[in-house]
Structures are given as C-alpha cells and as structure tokens.
Specification:
The complex is a heterotrimer of chains A (about 300), B (about 280) and C (about 250).
Chain A: H1 4-11, H2 25-54, H3 70-77, H4 89-124, H5 126-139, H6 144-157, H7 162-186, H8 191-199, H9 204-242, H10 248-257, H11 263-291
Helix pairs in contact in A: 1-2, 1-11, 3-11, 4-5, 4-7, 4-9, 4-11, 6-7, 6-9, 7-9, 9-10, 9-11, 10-11
Chain B: H1 24-54, H2 65-74, H3 76-110, H4 112-125, H5 134-141, H6 146-170, H7 174-182, H8 187-223, H9 231-240, H10 244-272, H11 277-284
Chain C: E1 2-13, E2 20-31, E3 35-39, H1 46-53, E4 61-66, H2 71-76, E5 80-83, H3 95-105, H4 110-123, H5 139-151, E6 157-161, H6 169-186, E7 189-194, H7 197-203, E8 206-211, E9 216-222, H8 231-234, H9 237-252
Parallel strand pairs in C: 3-7, 3-8, 5-6, 6-7
Antiparallel strand pairs in C: 1-2, 1-4, 8-9
Helix pairs in contact in C: 3-4, 3-5, 4-5, 7-9
Classes of the chains: A mainly alpha (about 300), B mainly alpha (about 280), C alpha/beta (about 250).
Chain lengths: ~300, ~280, ~250
C-alpha cells in the first residue's frame, strides 16, 4: 500500500513536534502504523487465548467460529473463495473493491460538484441559503438505505446501469460536507481582502475566482477527505438493496450468510472495505498536496472544529 | 467577535431553533429567519402533489404526499414500535461510543509520545466504512440483540469523538498554559480548569456529528438482519415490496429520531457551556 | 531588601548553529514598592527578562532573586501576579470566576474568594460586570479583569508584559491612570514591559532602556516626576524632557 504513508504523513499534522528530525516523518508514521497493527493482532489473539483458558464467553465467545485466528483470515485470502473455484478470495475481493470504488468515485464527483455549486449559490444568495440550508442539514438524517431501492428502480426504468444509480446514492452522502465546508471557506477571507477586491471594482465572478475559491481550497479538501469515506460507505449501502452480485456490499451480505462455516471470509471482506476507504482518502490527500502546496494544512477532522474564534 | 452564523460548524444550522427564553421580538426574528424555508417546504409539497396527480405517476415510483401522510397515520403504531427499537440501539451505541471515545482521548492526550502514533491511526481508521462491521456484530451478539446494532453505532461514534476530544485537550492556548504556570497551578488544576473546559466545544462538535450518524448507523446495521420491529427492517421490507408510501413513513420516523437526538445534544451543549458562541450570536444579532 | 535582584543574567535559545543570544549580562536591582519599566525595540528580550523573573523561563547564566528567594520558590509561593498582553481570560468563566481562578488554585474557600473577587472588581471598577462572560467585555475591560485577577491574591510583585499594547490610545491612557491609582493604593512592586516611550515615562519611577542583539540594559533613566501623575503630567515640560531622554537612549544603541 504505497498510499498509506502519504495519508499518514498528511494526517500527522496533528502533532508538529519535530524533535526527531533525523527520522523522516513517513518512516516514523509507517513504523507507528505497523506497531499499532501488531498490537491489535496481539490483543485479538491474547483475548482468544485468555478467554478460552478461563472459559469466559462475555462479551464475545473466543471460539474460532466467531473470532477466527488472524493467520486464518490471511490464509483464507489466498485460497479459492469457492470449492472448485479458480480465483482466490483476495482477487475476488479486490475486484469487488474496485467495482465499489468506481461507484464511489463517480458518486464523489457528482456529489462534490453539486455540493460546490450549492455552496456558491448559497454564498451569492442569502435567501437561497436560508430557504435550503435547513433541508440540506435535515437531508443527512434521512436513512438513505431506504431511498436506495427507489433510486435503483428509477435508474432501471431509464435504462441506466445500476452502478450509476448506486453512485447517485453515494453522492447523497458526499455533497453535504462539501457544501458546508465550501460555504465556510468562501466566507473565510478577511473582510479587508474583500474590501480590497471592491476597491478594484472586481466583479462578483472575479472575487469568487481570485479570492474566495483559493481561500476555500483547504476547507474544500478537508471536506473531500470526509466525502471520500462517505462515498465508499454510500456505495456499499447502495449495493445492498440493488441486488447485483458485484461490489463489496453484496459480498458482505453473501459472506455474512456463510459466517457460521467460514467466518474468516467475512473478516477478509471487512478488511478489504477498510483498505478501499483508506486508499480513497489517501488519493484525495495526495491530490490536496499537489493542489494546495505551501498552505497551512487543515487537519482532516477540521470540519469538526468548534465554531468560533476565541474571545479576546 | 467575528463569528458569522455560517462561521459555525457542520450541523449547527438548526441552533436557532432551540427552545429557550424567547422574547416576542426574538420570536419574530426567528420566524422571519425561517420563513423562506417554511414557504419553500410548502411549495415543494404542493408541487409534488400536483405533479404526481397531473402526470399520473404510479404509486410504486413516487407516492403523493397526501398518500404518505395517510399511510403514516395507518401505520403509526407499527412505525413507532420499530422506531423505539432503533432509538434504543442508537442511544445505547451513542452513549457507549462517546464514553469509550472520551476515555481513549484522555489516555491519548496524556502521553504525547503515544499521541504521535495513535492520532494518525485514529484518523485513518475514521476513513474506514465501519458499517461493514455490522454483519460481524450480528454474529457476535446475536441477530436480534440490541447490542449488535449498538456496537456498530458505538464504533462509528467512537472515532470522531476521540479525535476531536484529543484535539480539544491538546490545542490549548499557550497564554492560558503560561498563566497557569505563573500561578504555580498543579497539573490536576491545569487539566480540570483549562484543558477539560477547552475540550468541551470540540467534544460537542463531534457529538453533534455523531448524533446524526447514530440513527442512520443503527438503521443500516438492521439491514444486515435484525428484529422485525425495527426501522431498518421495516423500511427495506416495504421498499422491497414496492410499498413506498409505507417505506416513507418509516423514513419520516427515522429522520425525526435523528433530529430529536441531535436537538437533545444541542440542548446538552448549551447547558454544559453557558459561555457558548451560539449564545453570543443570539445576543449580538 | 530589594524586591527583585538580577545579577549577570544571560539567556540563550536553541543549540548548535541555531543558537540565539537573547539576553546578555543583565544587572538590575528593583526596590520594594518601586515601579520600573523595561523598554526597547521588539526582539530586545524585554519579555524574556520578565519571564525569567517569573520563572516561566530559566536563565542560562547569572542569578535572579525575587524577594530574596529563587524565582521558582517565589512562583510556588505565589509572590507575583502576572498580566499578559492578551487578557487570557478563560472563555468559560464569568468575570468573577476568572478573578477567583488563582484563589481556587490556592485552595481558598468560597466565601473568602467571593469577597476578595468583589473587592478586586470594585478596585478596577467592574463590579457590575461580575456575571458577564469575557466576550461581552471590551478589550480594555478584559485587561482590567486580568489586572484584578493578578491582584486578587495580594502578591507583592506585579509583572506586566505589554498589558496595554493591544488597546487604542484613549483607552490606553485611561488604563494608565487607573494602574497608577491602583499602584498608589496597593503599593506593589511593578515591573512593566512596554514599547511605548510616553507610557514608560508616565508610569514609572525608573525606565530601563534595552538594546538588542544581544539584549542588554543600555541605560536606566530616572524619571523623577512627582506622583500622583495625571492629565497635567502629560502636558508637563518635564514629561517631554524625559521622553526625549529615553528616546535618545534608545537611538544611541540602534
């Protein structure tokens, strides 16, 4: 996973302690990552061992049928997924992940563009903002899984491929962070900068292009990182009721039904979903580095910052 | 005070709605503020109803608002019972996830060495589609147990709460730390009087996001199997049978639950932080 | 006994090639009850010197005593109150509770805290704002709260780091008048860091003029104008003469 250190160093902006300058940050990040994974594996196996010895069953029974050994999960990935099948599980999962990522990327683009345009409309028209903003927020409390079958149905009637329908479902989750953060970003320039633009008699479009959008870029990328995850989640959710065999969502459902005989396949699928999510976010982080160079990094969780500048 | 209403964060758009001491003039302002939104809602509903009637759209494609309303009343007992299950799962998960998130944050913030490694990991883990854990949770805790869904919700809630609380505990104004040092304050005082209060707004920002996610998380987790009387099961059953008016009834209950939990968290925030910036905005306006 | 004794103090930051000598061979003796200003261009180390007195930084060379104790002991004993350029009020506390903060840390019980906070707020003229939050106050009022907080536990020494630096000129002069009034009533020793020449002259008995790279005290100007000082002082010829003297001392070492 070459992308991983990138996310890590991109996200490591959390603690700018640079006391250990001699070791490159990405090396340290990778080492930390491996260490934490090792600790998690150790905790998993230790739980199984101790709970088995003491015959504890709470909260989870330590039997292999509910908690397979980590090495069994890994080795299952390199065995054929079905008896007599040709492809090993890893290949099947990778194909499913790529399929899901394709939906996710399209949903990400649709949602991103729509979310951006909505923010531009909002910043230009306070009336539009006041009319629509409550619904933009409320939209995110609508359980989208419920909307999924309808969207798939509509798409089918219009002869669209189903995966495009799923992408639209994903875009429903994607646009929201982009709208909120773009709006914040467009409104972020200092009032004096806006006055400066006014003094040049700049047209609104020019103010937008030369001042507001550049100022908003760090905010937008913060949102895009959140949207990337949301897009993968939306795609998986969209696949559940869509009823076609490709994609991680359907694979999750299949292996959930065979959990009692081969639980490691479900775990492997979850692992692959995690990889898909992380890879997508890593790609967005990489794009951010190219686009917003030499800007202070807006931490990936920044959309969650408290609302205000401090008093005084 | 540079805080414009939009300068605030993601889900605070509803903040003005909270009940509180409302003077008549404030009430008038509030109505004026939300009038466009109300008018729009009315127009959309009317247009929806009229278009469906005029073009004679079949019910299984798009139900009429009037029909959804009628169905909602018919199905009221069923959807409320389903909502009660989902609500308990969401709240249990929210409470557990918040509790563990805060504990993990306290431990992480305490040791800066650990923080350097754990925080990027937590941020990366936050980009994992955690809903994929739902089938595993179902197997572990039982298909019909509330715990299975609550566990998924808890994991979803855990990461944003933890990440933001760590930031709140560590991103403290340097001047405030210097002040505490000048007062020869013991470390315990620095934590209780500066770091914890400083973390509160960060914590609540995360909790507001988590509140909106909790109900959706529970509903999606139910899709992987759950009690018959639960929103996820109900909605997908009805939608699968193309009974969309029924499905929409379930969706309405789900949205109402999501907004209710969110509003509760907002209220909690105001109670816990009487100095909060949203109250300033209300005063300044 | 002098309130603050600074002998041969130097301070360097960084290591190796990146080393910066912020202060070099500082000697200054401040009497009990005296009002002394430190003035100099930015980067001359005046704030650093103040932080050495307050044990917020440790000196690289030399010794400091505060009331005969080490700065560390003086800090532990809460012998000084500090006022920063930013008021540094805690957002989540009302004005009264901000003033009570040091008293809480010192473990003083509630009733005593309240009466002392009330007294201090009366002293700075903010009694009616006790229940307000910091954001509801203007910059000058916030700084008055910070002064009340610094005085609340009756320290013998007051360390002020450009406390009025962020205020407008009118507010600033009003605050200076008020500070002198408080000083004359409470008779604390004050070390006051500023980069305003009139401010230093108006307030102080002595002005220590500093130069930079490395930071040194190049001259100490005795102001010698009588107290109480007021609006008339600001228009006094002696006041202008002293301003000129300090200005020239600053120029000499540029």
């Amino acid at each position: 996973m070459p992308g991983l250190p990138v996310v890590f160093s991109a996200m490591a902006a959390v603690s700018p302690t640079l006391e250990a300058r001699t070791v490159p940050r990405w090396v340290r990040s990778t080492l930390w990552f491996l260490l934490i994974v090792a600790v998690l594996v150790l905790v998993w196996e230790a739980y199984k061992f101790i709970w088995t010895q003491l015959e504890w069953t709470w909260p989870v029974r330590p039997i292999n049928r509910s908690m397979p050994h980590t090495w069994d999960i890994v080795s299952a990935m390199f065995r054929p997924a079905r008896r007599g099948g040709e492809d090993i599980l890893l290949v099947i999962l990778a194909e499913a992940a790529l399929f899901t990522l394709r939906e996710a990327v399209l949903g990400f683009v649709i949602g991103g563009v729509f979310g951006f345009l909505l923010a531009v409309v909002f910043v230009r028209s306070p009336l539009a903002e006041r009319s629509l903003m409550p619904y933009v927020v409320a939209s995110q409390t609508v359980p989208i899984i419920a909307v999924a079958p309808m969207v798939v149905l509509w798409a089918g009637r219009n002869d669209w491929p189903q995966w495009v329908a799923v992408a639209f479902i994903a875009s429903y989750l994607t646009f929201f962070p982009v709208t909120i953060n773009t709006l914040r970003g467009l409104q972020s320039p200092d009032p004096t900068a806006t006055e400066l633009m006014r003094s040049y008699a700049a047209r609104p479009g020019q103010v937008l292009r030369k001042l507001q959008v550049p100022a908003a870029l760090p905010y937008i990328f913060t949102a895009l990182k959140i949207s990337a995850t949301a897009s993968v989640i939306g795609s998986i959710i969209g696949e559940l009721p869509a009823g076609f065999p490709d994609g991680l969502g359907r694979v999750l459902l299949n292996f959930a039904s065979t959990f009692s005989t081969s639980p490691e396949k479900l775990f492997a699928t979850v692992f692959m979903s995690a990889v898909a999510g992380i890879v997508f976010v890593a790609a967005v982080s990489l794009a951010e580095r190219v686009v917003v160079r030499s800007r202070p990094e807006v931490f990936a969780g920044d959309m969650l910052t408290p609302d205000e500048g401090r008093a005084g | 005070m540079t805080s414009e209403p939009h300068d605030r964060d993601v889900l605070t758009a509803f903040e003005g709605d909270l009940p509180g001491t409302v003077t008549p003039s404030a009430l008038r302002r509030r109505i004026k503020r939300y009038l466009p939104a109300l008018v729009l809602a009315f127009l959309v509903l009317v247009a929806w109803e009229v278009l469906v009637r005029v073009f004679n759209v079949q019910e299984f494609i798009l139900a009429k608002p009037s029909e959804i309303y009628a169905t909602f009343l018919d199905e009221f007992d069923t959807v409320v019972e389903a909502g009660w299950t989902t609500l308990r799962e969401a709240v249990l998960g929210l409470v557990l996830g918040t509790l563990f998130g805060v504990l993990a944050a306290l431990a992480t913030a305490r040791w800066s060495g650990i923080r350097e490694g754990v925080m990027p990991f937590a941020v990366a883990a936050n980009s994992i589609p955690i809903l994929a854990l739902a089938p595993i949770a179902n197997q572990w805790f039982g298909l019909t147990s509330l715990t299975a869904k609550a566990a998924v919700v808890a994991v979803i809630v855990f990461f944003p709460v933890m990440i933001n609380t760590v930031r709140g505990l560590t991103e403290v104004d340097a001047g405030e730390l210097e002040l505490m040092r000048a007062l020869a304050a013991p470390p315990r005082d620095v934590v209780t009087r500066v770091r914890l209060p400083n973390a509160l707004p960060y914590f609540f920002s995360a909790l507001k996001v988590a509140a909106a996610l909790a109900v959706i998380g529970a509903i999606v987790a139910e899709y992987f199997g759950g009690r018959t009387a639960s929103l996820g099961f109900y909605i997908t059953q009805q939608a699968g049978a193309f009974k969309f008016a029924e499905a929409w009834s379930g969706i309405i209950v789900g949205s109402v639950l999501g907004i209710a939990i969110y509003a509760f968290v907002l209220g909690l925030e105001r109670w816990a932080m009487p100095w909060h910036v949203s109250l300033r905005a209300a005063d300044d306006r | 006994m002098s309130a603050v004794e600074i002998r041969g103090v130097g301070k360097t930051f960084g290591r190796g090639a990146g080393v910066v000598e912020a202060l070099q061979n500082i000697n200054l003796s401040i009497e009990t009850g005296e009002f002394v200003s430190l003035i100099g261009p930015s980067g001359c180390g005046k704030s650093t010197l103040l932080r050495l007195v307050g044990d917020l930084l440790a000196p690289s060379t030399g010794t400091l005593t505060v009331g005969g104790k080490t700065p560390h002991a003086a800090r532990e004993d809460r012998d000084y109150g500090m006022v920063f350029q930013k008021a540094t009020l805690l957002d989540w506390r009302t004005v009264r509770r901000n003033v009570e903060l040091p008293l809480e840390i010192m473990g003083i019980d509630g009733e005593e805290r309240q009466s002392r906070a009330a007294e201090m707020l009366a002293l700075v003229g903010l009694s009616e704002f006790a229940g307000h939050y910091p954001w509801q106050l203007s910059g000058g009022m916030q700084q008055r709260v910070a002064i009340a907080r610094a005085l609340s536990f009756e320290p013998s020494l007051l360390l002020m780091d450009e406390p009025f630096g962020a205020l407008d000129e009118m507010t600033r002069e009003a605050m200076q008048d008020e500070l002198l009034r408080i000083w004359e009533r409470t008779k604390r020793t004050v070390i006051f860091v500023t980069h305003s020449i009139p401010e230093a002259v108006f307030l102080s008995q002595r002005v220590a003029v500093m130069s930079r790279r490395p930071g040194r005290i190049s001259r100490v100007v005795d102001v010698g104008l009588p107290y109480p000082r007021d609006e008339d002082t600001r228009e006094d010829q002696g006041f202008y003469d002293k301003i000129t003297e300090v200005r020239e001392a600053l120029r000499e070492h540029e």
